[in-house]
Amino acid sequence: MKRIGLFGGTFDPVHIGHIVAAEYVLDACGLERVLFVPTRIPPHKEAPDTPAEDRFHMVEVAVADRPGLGVSRVELDREGPSYTVDTLRYLRTRHPDVRFAWIVGADQLLGFPMWKSPEEIVSLADLIAVVRPGYNEHKGMDVVRKQFPRAALEVVEMPRLEVSSSELRARLEAGRTVSVLVPQAVQELIRAKGLYKRAGRVR
Ligand code: ATP
């Protein structure tokens, strides 16, 4: 059975931590593909200022030259908050022959029991967590295992990259470099579209 990884997130902007995570999971878990799934409205954090289409476009150019990686519009084209369970229900119905794995950073594990219908999520997909500096993946795994003993859960090691979109937004707004941390093509798009400029800011 084909196994496809889904990597949900705000991607505001997409960065090297996301790309390394997707590449390492693709390799370690022998997946057919990993699809980034940009959220329209993240249910568990503040709504991003960056329009969903721009966040999608940044991911699109980031993965364009990476075989095995892709991006899905599934959450962008659905009204309301982007609940993972709804995305998985929809994809499972449309692709009954595919086994899906939902990919998260280790920081997401502790909060996973508070997601909408977590029990159903783990019945619809495997759960793959990548390590992230500052977050204890063992603790996160224990929380999920204890509450959802039937979940197919694995941790994938990757170089621990201390980078986050919020930190990169702050750098971009301050006119500082994000070189290497954000793919070149994404940096060009940010520049061309004038993203991450504080409204009213004199430059
Ligand atoms: P923000 O700083 O705005 O909260 P973020 O950098 O965490 O953003 P998201 O788009 O929210 O980025 O993350 C999407 C997914 O990628 C989440 O599951 C998150 O845990 C994971 N992730 C983000 N950054 C890293 C990183 N440096 N290493 C491993 N996983 C990461």
UniProtKB/TrEMBL annotation:
Name of the top EC class for this enzyme: transferase
Alphabetized PANTHER family for the sequence: NICOTINATE-NUCLEOTIDE ADENYLYLTRANSFERASE-RELATED, PHOSPHOPANTETHEINE ADENYLYLTRANSFERASE
GO biological process: NAD+ biosynthetic process
Any Pfam family: CTP_transf_like
InterPro entries, sorted: Cyt_trans-like, NadD/NMNAT, Rossmann-like_a/b/a_fold
Domain Cytidyltransferase-like: 6-171
Annotated catalysed reactions: nicotinate beta-D-ribonucleotide + ATP + H(+) = deamido-NAD(+) + diphosphate
Gene3D superfamilies (alphabetical): HUPs (3.40.50.620)
CDD domains in the cross-refs: NMNAT
Keywords: ATP-binding, NAD, Nucleotide-binding, Nucleotidyltransferase, Pyridine nucleotide biosynthesis, Transferase
EC number: 2.7.7.18
Pathway, per record: Cofactor biosynthesis; NAD(+) biosynthesis; deamido-NAD(+) from nicotinate D-ribonucleotide: step 1/1
Family: Belongs to the NadD family.
Source organism superkingdom: Bacteria
The organism's taxonomic lineage, starting at the top: Bacteria, Bacillati, Bacillota, Bacilli, Bacillales
Function noted in UniProt: Catalyzes the reversible adenylation of nicotinate mononucleotide (NaMN) to nicotinic acid adenine dinucleotide (NaAD).
Protein name from the UniProt record: Probable nicotinate-nucleotide adenylyltransferase
GO molecular function: ATP binding; nicotinate-nucleotide adenylyltransferase activity
